[in-house]
Specification:
The chain has about 260 residues and is α/β, with parallel strands linked by helices. It has one domain: 3-Layer(aba) Sandwich (Rossmann fold), CATH 3.40.50.300. It has a six-stranded mixed sheet with strand order 6-7-8-3-9-10, with helices on both faces. Strands 2-1-4-5 form a four-stranded antiparallel sheet, with helices on one face. The longest helix is centred in the last third of the chain and has 18 residues.
Length: about 260
């Protein structure tokens, strides 16, 4: 199968012409279907800028980004808006749930926006809620849920439309360690059970150790890659820590 994401020589420059700041400097990589890929780098390395360009929130200054075969760097704003709704799923650190809607309604809203058949919505919501272990909170409002429950609702909302690519920006940043572990195990489950493709920015080596592969960004360039393969998660974690130290800091500096 062709890659879900292909990035070719991505550059992003900010500032005036006579005093530019290059945030991304010729980054190229691919993400295969059903792959869970993490992006790590110290603060200011360009990892969030890269995610923003891939998510179409920001435009690359140069290069090409293909998602599910579509060149998002060449799309009009109107086409990008449609593509975002139909082909991308988003999971943010601060959940971004609508406070006036229940968990069920927050999840179902994604299908309603796409004008999905009304008779199919209930079954799809309950199916994904069962997978993520949130069936018991579907009738609750965000203020009635724990942080971990809210993030799993946000995850359900992101994947219920079966997007080509799920983009997660520090999804465990606001969670305690137990809730973070549950969420990351759910990510693995989604990859295994629903063939989800996930690209996650994280500063945390523990979170990264759940990925299939890690891209390390330094000074706007791709510095190194790690592939988990058949390693146990603890072995992969140790490898990640080793690269973090090579980059010149511990995982607390990766924020």
């Amino acid at each position: 199968m062709p890659a879900i994401l292909r990035a070719y020589n991505i550059e992003k420059t900010y500032g005036a012409v006579n005093n530019p700041t290059k945030a991304l400097n010729g980054i190229s990589f691919a993400v295969e279907p059903g792959e869970f890929v993490g992006i790590m780098g110290a603060s200011g390395s360009g990892k969030t800028t890269l995610l923003n360009c891939i998510s179409t929130i920001d435009r690359a200054t140069a290069g090409q980004i293909l998602i599910a075969g579509e060149d998002v760097t060449a799309m009009s704003p109107e086409a990008l808006s449609k593509f975002r709704r139909e082909s991308l799923g988003f999971i943010f650190q601060d959940f971004n749930l609508l406070d006036t809607l229940t968990a069920y309604e927050n999840i179902a809203l994604a299908l309603t926006i796409l004008k999905s058949a009304a008779e199919s919505i209930d079954g799809r919501v309950r199916e994904v809620a069962d997978i993520l272990g949130i069936a018991d909170v579907l009738g609750k409002y965000p203020y009635q849920m724990s942080g971990g429950q809210k993030q799993r609702v946000a995850c359900a909302r992101a994947i219920i439309t079966k997007p080509s690519l799920v983009l997660a920006d520090e999804p465990t940043g606001a969670l305690d360690s137990k809730s973070a572990k549950v969420l990351l195990e759910n990510f693995r489950l989604l990859v295994r059970e629903r063939a989800a493709t996930i690209l996650m920015v994280t500063h945390d080596a523990f979170s990264a150790s759940y990925c299939d592969r890690i891209l390390f960004i330094r000074d706007g360039s791709l510095f190194h890659q790690l592939l988990r393969g058949t390693q146990a998660r603890k072995q992969f974690f140790d490898q990640i820590i080793g690269v973090v130290r090579t980059l010149g800091g511990d995982s607390d500096d990766f924020s």
